Amino acid sequence: MKTIKLFIISVLLLSSFQALAELKKGPYPR
């Protein structure tokens, strides 16, 4: 169970880092 929690946390961190990087690039034209 610990490994599953660590995996989920790592995936969430990766997705959040990607979102921050895209936000720093500039806001999307919507």
Explain what the structure shows:
There is one protein chain. This protein is 80% helix and 0% strand. It is an all-alpha fold. It has 1 helix and no strands. The protein starts with a helix and ends in a 5-residue tail after the last helix.
Total number of helices: 1
The average pLDDT score comes to: 86
H/E element sequence: H
Structural class: mainly alpha
- Gyration radius (Cα, Å) is 13 Å
- Major beta sheet summary: none
Shape: rod-shaped
Tally of DSSP β-strands:
0
- As residue ranges, the low-confidence spans are none
Range of strand content: under 5%
Topology summary:
Blueprint (H helix, E strand, L loop, with lengths): L1 H24 L5
Question: What's the gist of this structure?
Answer:
With 30 residues, the chain is mostly helical. The protein is 80% helix and 0% strand.
Keywords summarizing the entry:
30 residues, 80% helix
